[in-house]
């Protein structure tokens, strides 16, 4: 059954790539002209990546992967979407960079990639597509060199408790929810006026599940930070802050969390 869910998601993301690549949010022309797609959180966390090997999980159409490549890392990006990987490869060639891209389910990464990396990286809207984080954590450990760093920055699980489809956020879903959440709606976060129908299966994971998946796989947690500002204005009624990020008016709950861990 989960393979059916993944297939629905793959088809949806193939359609999203076509829309996102033309959207103001992803601003592909500015990216081609040298603008980095990376945000403050990940830049501060990973610092100078020159000469390091980096595996980017769930890379969409490769902008962040290629931004790390521009910063001097030797990168491999993986994603479920055929259209995403096709576009990523095209951008890599157009920009004369040296990243590699592989089309696969993130949980099958170790079946498709055998090398190990200094850094494994993933960001923003990624783990909600996975039903179980234990194989995800195991895969991350398999793909890291000893002493290598895993870094993720992700929307906080509290954010995923709300349904945003009716305009006003309504608390609908469990903080930890084993059963799949199915949503079907018009548009996509990068272009809400698009006529595409997004069909998506997702799962909610609490922070304890994320941490335990990494620890059980043999990683040492360096830090967990919860942050009340998001670099993306993708939720209703967020306000721009002095830092250029976005926050809720009352800042009653975090929007983002970040984890850095080391393979011991």
List the uncertain runs: none
Mean pLDDT across residues: 95
Helix content range of the residues, please? 25-40%
The assigned CATH architecture is 3-Layer(aba) Sandwich
Explained architecture:
The protein has about 260 residues and is α/β, with parallel strands linked by helices. The protein has a single domain (about 1-155, about 205-264), classed as Vaccinia Virus protein VP39 (Rossmann fold, 3-Layer(aba) Sandwich), CATH 3.40.50.150. About 30% of the residues lie in helices and about 30% in strands. It is built from eight helices and 13 strands. The chain has helices at about 1-20, 30, 40-45, 65-70, 80-95, 110, 135-145, 205-215, and strands at about 55, 75-80, 100-105, 115-125, 145-155, 160-165, 170, 175-185, 195-205, 220-225, 240, 245, 255-264. It has a seven-stranded mixed β-sheet with strand order 3-2-1-4-5-13-10, with helices on both faces. Strands 6-7 form a two-stranded antiparallel sheet. Strand 2 (about 75-80), helix 5 and strand 3 (about 100-105) form a beta-alpha-beta unit. Helix 1 packs parallel to helix 5 (about 80-95) and helix 7 (about 135-145) packs across helix 8 (about 205-215). The longest helix has 19 residues, at about 1-20. The protein is globular.
